[in-house]
Here is the input.
Amino acid sequence: MTTDRVDTMIEAGDEVTIQRVAPEAGLVDVMGGSSRWEVKVDDHGFVALVDCMPRLVGEGQTADSAIVQAARVSYGQGTKKVNEDRGLIRYLMRHRHSTPFEMIEFKFHVAMPVFVARQWIRHRTANVNEYSARYSIVPDRFWRPTVGSVRMQSKTNRQGGEEPIDAGTAERFLQLLDRAEENYREYLALTEQGVARELARAALPVSVFTEWYWKCDLHNILHFLSLRLDPHAQREIRVYAEAMHRLVREIVPITCEAFEDYRMQAMHLTRLEIEAIRSGSPIATDNRREQEEWAAKRARLGL
Ligand SMILES: Cc1cc2nc3c(=O)[nH]c(=O)nc-3n(C[C@H](O)[C@H](O)[C@H](O)COP(=O)(O)OP(=O)(O)OC[C@H]3O[C@@H](n4cnc5c(N)ncnc54)[C@H](O)[C@@H]3O)c2cc1C
Here is the structure.
């Protein structure tokens, strides 16, 4: 048996009708008509929000509404009361739903030292376009701590620094940075002499600044923030995460509140820790690091 095939292909030259649907209510720009919201970081750094999706939302709503819209796709619009939207977003966050949060996107322009960019670029789920030091001269901007903010190597955390080091040693470190920055003059001179910029840049230290556009969806931004706002993250990237958190919170306040309640301020308990609470006994492990982590959690819980 054969059936007649209904050909629905659009052929070249066909007239196509595009249905343009007006919004139910007036639309507002979630960035209030600004082209850029910028937060300064230390001397030369910044995190600037330059665009986001959705940019336009119904009056009285925030960009959080795009999460609700996506989550409800399977059973229609349903009820749209703001408090119910908040409940749904908080439910999605508690239960680690991801794709509704991917419906929101943010585009940032960021300036940061190269050693911070090296940590940042490890977050693979963003789209990045960086300043080209092959194409352009690297601007004269270097990261430089104050004497009081030069940290001493931590004795307990091999990856970190804690207390400020004595002023004399801090001064010596700043002098070392000065000498590294002196290379910049020679870098400029040699590029003017004709040395290719792509080679000359090899003499610049990692304290020099770079810039990029960084676009990422909200789900992966929250993952970035959970790692880079954490006290274990290096202070020099944490300040950028804090700036980003402030900007994102303005656009998706309901999601950020849920993120803070259920992730940032929340605590994960292991099976051994739950057993220790139940039995009132010390945690059943010889691992010193695990014991220390449990002690820190007990202190937070007031146990
Ligand atoms: C405090 C701290 C210390 C660190 N120390 C070191 C270090 O000493 N050395 C070092 O090399 N790195 C270090 N890192 C970097 C770290 O290991 C991660 O590479 C970085 O945090 C990015 O995390 P991510 O892969 O989860 O993020 P993203 O790349 O944004 O990925 C988000 C999520 O997407 C998924 N994903 C992305 N790409 C893939 C893929 N290809 N395959 C499967 N799943 C994928 C994963 O679930 C991932 O968690 C450190 C990070 C922190 C926060």
Remarks:
- The chain has three domains: 22-142+207-266, 144-206, 269-303.
- The first strand starts at residue 27 and ends at 29.
